[in-house]
Write a structure and sequence with these properties.
about 300 residues; alpha+beta; five-stranded antiparallel β-sheet; 12 strands
């Protein structure tokens, strides 16, 4: 159980959550198998098979949003609709117009859905009630928003906001690259993206960032929008301008620690989750400090 990406949010101040009530509310929207005519089904599932909807370890909560989606390519629907239109033209001696063609595509979609393959996916989220974090393991803001929308549907009065910091991530990353270092427990790695105000983009992968060429880009007005970093020799990641953490990598020291403690698969999940949340909570604190601190929440 190691997150690969993080979209980070703040829970509201002075709001407490009781796990039993929270789980009861998640049960209002559990994942149901796709019916024959459904294109997608979405709902909450146990993070551990056969377990509760909220898996709690050391006061840290793990949630899982499941989805089933029918795989029905538009090209397949179009081909079947074209075949049906051709049959109509041959049997009735008339052309199929645009409106009728659109209706044919809709009809073929409904006809083909029961035969479509089903793709399953799971989005995990971690709630830290003690420190007020919600972290969603999502590679895109859209997937994170889907997770939040499903929480909003069922959990009474639930609300979060993106983490807001004093210094913009892009401005801070640009300064770090220009200086060649970051204060604290972070080091700069070798992946970088810079962008100009006209959206001209330069990317470096596995490339030393110490050269004059990169500083010249910055002098010419480009700003850093993505930067690979490592925290405390334990976790590597790419930070972007939206304060999203991508390509999280938990380095050998953590993986070996987990392997040495677990005796079975269930223990392994709990140990992985405990190690991950403990280290990430510290990373969040250090990263926010490096970005000038967090802006105060509104009361």
């Amino acid at each position: 159980m190691w997150f690969k990406n993080i979209q980070l949010y703040r829970l509201p101040k002075n709001r407490t959550f009781e796990i039993t009530e929270f789980e009861d509310q998640l049960a209002r929207l559990t994942l149901q198998p796709c019916n024959a005519s459904d294109e997608q089904s979405i709902g909450w599932i146990p993070p551990r098979e056969g377990g509760p909807l909220v898996h709690s370890v050391n006061r840290q909560w793990l949630l899982a949003l499941g989805a089933e989606q029918k795989l029905l390519p538009a090209s397949v629907v179009k081909q079947f609709a074209n075949d049906r239109a051709k049959a109509i033209e041959e049997s009735e001696g008339r052309r199929v117009g645009r409106k009728e063609m659109r209706e044919l595509r809709e009809a073929m979609t409904q006809e083909l859905l029961p035969r479509a393959f089903v793709r399953k996916r799971t989005t995990f989220g971690w709630i830290d009630p003690e420190h007020g974090w919600l972290a969603v393991d999502a590679s895109s803001p859209a997937k994170a928003e889907e997770f939040l929308e499903c929480l909003y549907k069922v959990v009474d009065g639930f609300a979060v906001r993106p983490v807001k910091v004093q210094q913009s991530p892009s401005g801070a990353m640009t300064a770090w690259v220009a200086d060649g270092s970051i204060s604290g427990a972070f080091t700069i790695d070798q992946d970088l993206e810079l962008r100009s105000s006209e959206n001209a983009m330069v990317r470096y992968a596995k490339h030393s960032l110490d050269g004059d060429e990169i500083r010249q880009h910055i002098m010419n007005g480009k700003v850093v929008t993505r930067l690979a970093m490592t925290w405390n020799d334990k976790i590597s990641f790419v930070l972007n301008e939206g304060l999203q953490l991508k390509r999280l990598g938990f380095l050998d020291v953590l993986q070996e620690q987990a392997e040495g403690l677990a005796e079975n698969e269930e223990e392994r999940l709990d140990i992985d989750f405990t190690l991950m949340t403990g280290e990430l909570a510290q990373l969040f604190d250090h990263l926010i400090e490096a970005l000038g601190g967090e802006m105060p929440q509104e009361s």
